[in-house]
Amino acid sequence: MKTPDHPVVHVIEHYVARLVCALPPALLRIIGRDVAAPEGVKPAPEVGALLTIMAMTGERALGTGEDPEARRASTRRGAATAAPRKPGPVRAQQVTVAGAAGDLRARLYIPPVDTDGRLLVFYHGGGWVTGDLDTHDSVCRLLAMQAATRVVSVEYRLAPEHPFPAPADDAIAAFAHVVDHAPKFGARPDRISVAGDSAGGNLAAVVSQQTAGGPRPAAALLIYPACDFRGGTASRTLFAEGFLLEKRDMDWCQARYLPAGADIEDPWISPIFGEIDERHPPTVVVTAGFDPLRDEGETYAAHLRAAGVPTVLRRYPGLVHGFANVTALSRTSHDAMVDCASALLAAQELGARPPARVEVPVSS
Fold first, then answer.
1. Which of 217, 308, 331, 355 has a CB 3.0–4.6 Å from the CB of 189, allowing a cystine?
2. What structural domains and CATH numbers belong to the chain?
3. Catalytic residue among 198, 208, 235, 333
């Protein structure tokens, strides 16, 4: 039986999980001893312990059942449990940005350091169905602090109420709005980058490709992005079950995101099929060793490199999909995200370009 969804319960769960993850590695390995090792190695000790706890409680990354609202509630619950208890020195304020069909809620994060005009437009993960500003609050705070950049987190429209192309159209419209109003957000137009995790990484990749008619992002950070809806990679088979993100959840999200008859080889859906031009921003691609999306993310990094794009690929071998959200519990995950932020900062400096006016494309 699942425990009640209540703030006090989230706090208790957080500290229990934190106490478990702080145990000596030898004890953590005992707790996670039943976690599978499809390639002959185990996840990081605290990650294996977290996977064991989730298996015991029946929790999954994107919830269970057919009701999108129930899954959204489950995602919020998991994020609240994993979030740090103290927000740290980064300030946050509510803002709005223009979406493709009206204003969108957004949140501006301001670190207590000189950002030199840098800003990151962030798209949250959650399979295009779940996730919001709160589920990725800790991710944005960490990136803002460690990459010395302001962050605008965008709450784009979600499927199934708003299936493809609504989230992708919102992602591009939001980027255009932030560039056109850069001073309002404390940024320089030529220093605005994009980032996202999972489904949000997919959207950040789409924005990087599909803004050829105007300013491009200065850089892109794609954290375990969904890049190829064909789904035929070895990692999708190896890690189909038992590693946080499961095949049944990906299938459920895809069925709600894509309308009947959608072309999965459309680059607005699968960026792996996109044309990469000479102005594509420098890109950091992040993958996890135990992630179904690992191989397609790494193939996409190779695709970018072959086209001449400055590309950094970071694979974190002991981690699973979703590690960006558990940095308060997992030291390995925290260190990985600090490393990602460092790589992003370097890419931002490499990719800064003179400002120009944005033209907003419309998906086909």
1. 355
2. 7-77 (no CATH), 91-351 (3.40.50.1820)
3. 198
